[in-house]
Amino acid sequence: MRRTAWIWAVGSAVWTFDGIVNLYYRSWPHAELAFMVALMFGIAWAYYRQQQD
């Protein structure tokens, strides 16, 4: 899984961007959800990048 861990990092970045856009448009519930999903993707990335091939 280590070779595909970058997918989780990209997902985290995309969800963070989505959260920022929703903050700009003042959609608070969607922004909060997007940041929580980004956090989960970040945790998954940290876990999978440490795995052995």
Q: How does this model look, in words?
A:
With about 55 residues, the protein is mainly alpha-helical. About 75% of the residues lie in helices and about 0% in strands. It has two helices and no strands. The longest helix is centred in the C-terminal third of the chain and has 21 residues. It is elongated and about 45 Å long. The mean pLDDT is about 95.
Q: Please estimate the helix content.
A: over 70%
Distance between the termini: 6 Å
Shape: elongated
Question: Can you write the helix and strand succession as a string?
Answer: HH
Please count the beta strands (DSSP E, at least 2 residues each).
0
- Average pLDDT, to the nearest integer? 94
List low-confidence stretches: none
Provide the gyration radius in Å: 13 Å
Please give the count of helices.
2
Instruction: Give me the secondary-structure category.
Output: mainly alpha
**Main sheet characteristics:** none
The fraction of residues in strands falls at: under 5%
Blueprint of the fold:
Layout: H1 6-24, H2 28-48
Structure, briefly:
This protein is mostly helical and 53 residues long.
Keywords:
53 residues, mainly alpha, 2 helices, 0% strand
